[in-house]
Amino acid sequence: MSNKIINTGNRATREGFGEALAELGRTNKNVVALCADLLGSLNMQTFIAENPDRFVQVGIAEANMMGIAAGLAIGGKIPFTGTFANFSTGRVYDQIRQSIAYSDKNVKICASHAGLTLGEDGATHQILEDIGMMKMLPGMTVINPCDFNQTKAATLAIADFHGPVYLRFGRPSWPNFTSVDSFEIGKALLLQEGTDVSIFATGHLVWTALEAAQEVAALGIRCEVINIHTIKPLDNQAILDSVSKTKCVVSCEEHQRNGGLGDSIAQLLSQKMPVPQEYIAVIDSFGESGKPNDLLEKYGLGKKDIIAAIQNVIKRK
Amino acid sequence: MASIAYLQQVASQVRRDIIRQVAAVASGHPGGSLGCTDFLVALYFEIMQNNPSFYMEGKGEDLFFLSNGHISPAWYSVLARRGYFEVSELATFRKLNSRLQGHPATHEGLPGIRVASGSLGQGISVAIGAALAKKMDNDAHFIYCLTGDGELQEGQIWEAVMFAAHNKVDNLIVTVDWNGQQIDGSNDKVLSLGDLPLKWKSFGWEVLILENGNDIQSIIDALHQAKLLSGKGKPVVILMKTEMGFGVDFMMGTHKWHGSAPNAEQTANALSQLEETLGDYPL
């Protein structure tokens, strides 16, 4: 790994959410937390203990939760809904579409256990379509932080941002390496400079991309690694600036290829700066039960897949 | 306090507005709109402490949420006649570049609308959220919500009904437009609602049955009674029996006018049955 980027110790992104929510409970009296019977999984206990009057347990009724959140927002509150990513999106798409997005409600949809790294629970819970669904909604901001620190920073930031937000994070303990002050909504984070290929990565795969970049450095390949934590609005300028230098792209995400970050990048580049692109993403498939890293490897999201994509895309230049 | 005679005059004009809005664009939902007219007039002109100088948060006033958004022509007319926006704007209903969308929306900034509705089953949830916000702010005002009866077939309704009872959301007064009709026929034919009063009661609500939801005095009495029952740990529902199409003889007693507009001849016939009391808006 490069000198600047060090794993300070594995922690789950959802723990970063929980810590930030607790902090918001102390600093922002308008923040209200809602949960659909998963408060432990979402690490909401501290917020609830300190702010029992600003916590709403809705039970296993996510559609109702989204509506209640919209109503709280009408009353000037800043509702943070918490459940698994699957139940935060697909299950309640119409509620989000009509009562939140179309109605421009200041609701923060906070979604844990996204993607394959949910692990053993299997495909029913491993949503890989949520980024696509959420980024299609007009006015929705979509953020997928990569580690504990970034999830904490993003959670704090969205409280001060007016408008509906989808915040996607995950279950497993994972390397924690970004600095706490490096997050800004909509602004890509340059992690490693390089000239041969631009790697745009989001979520858990940012760390994997950094490992792959480190490994190919030994082969003389200089990767530029950029963390796209905000998928919508996309930081077009950062992407174009990098690609104008490297002339090729590898996109990395724990999501379907259809509708994910890679598609957003391809949409931009096809209009402004067409270049070869390789996708690291799940290709039109559901997941399955297993260990997080085993699943990433099986579905083509492992370090060796990223290395192969880097080598392929450079050949296509 | 407004006289019943005056409220009946308003209702007559609102019914004219409904027919004229729908007829002008040959589209919209006159049946349920006519059936709920008396309720909306009673609510906005007599019951609610509301502020036509609209602002979204609505602190310090009563709020209303329309869950069955397809009866938008009735709501738009009542809002306009109550002073939320110019009555002349009713002429833009369902037209391009209008704030009066086919189903109510906030997107264009129409005063009086706080959330979009049309996709059914969502309004009670939103109303609960607004009610919780009022409780958090120690604001003693009421949240009102109107739903259709066919709409009760949506699962989200019962999530919300269960929640409101469990959490003692007792500043919430829901009214169900119990006209027994929906697009494909009667409720009993499409999907029976069963023993509706018992359902709500068993979920833990105070249940009031309003036998004549097209009689303004009865509506006012029921809403006053609902307010008296509020604040005691239970949400309140008024099961309001109405006649779809009320006020226009050929639109009554059938589901045919749920989502159909009258032609020119039918429009003239309908308007001949409804007195122009407050002045028609120019087309």
Can you tag this structure with a few keywords?
heterodimer, A: 317 residues, alpha/beta, Rossmann fold, five-stranded mixed β-sheet, 12 helices, B: alpha/beta, two-stranded antiparallel sheet, 9 helices, globular
Secondary-structure map:
The complex is a heterodimer of chains A (317) and B (283).
Chain A: E1 11-12, H1 13-27, E2 31-35, H2 45-50, E3 55-57, H3 62-74, E4 78-84, H4 85-88, H5 93-101, E5 108-112, H6 130-136, E6 141-143, H7 148-159, E7 165-168, E8 173-174, E9 189-192, E10 197-201, H8 205-217, E11 223-227, E12 230-232, H9 236-246, E13 249-256, H10 261-272, E14 277-282, H11 292-298, H12 303-315
Parallel strand pairs in A: 2-3, 2-4, 4-5, 5-7, 6-7, 10-11, 10-13, 13-14
Antiparallel strand pairs in A: 1-8, 6-12, 9-11
Chain B: H1 4-25, H2 30-47, E1 63-66, H3 72-82, H4 123-136, E2 143-148, H5 155-166, E3 172-178, E4 181-182, E5 185-186, H6 187-190, H7 196-202, E6 206-210, H8 216-229, E7 236-241, H9 264-272
Parallel strand pairs in B: 1-2, 2-3, 3-7, 6-7
Antiparallel strand pairs in B: 4-5
Helix pairs in contact in B: 1-2, 1-3, 1-9, 2-3, 2-8, 4-5
Low-confidence stretches of chain A: none
Which spans of chain B have pLDDT < 50 for at least 5 consecutive residues? none
Q: How would you describe the shape of chain B?
A: globular
What separation lies between the terminal Cα atoms of chain A? 26 Å
Which superfamily, in CATH terms, is the homologous superfamily of the largest domain in chain A? Answer: Thiamin diphosphate (ThDP)-binding fold, Pyr/PP domains
CATH architecture of the largest domain in chain A: 3-Layer(aba) Sandwich
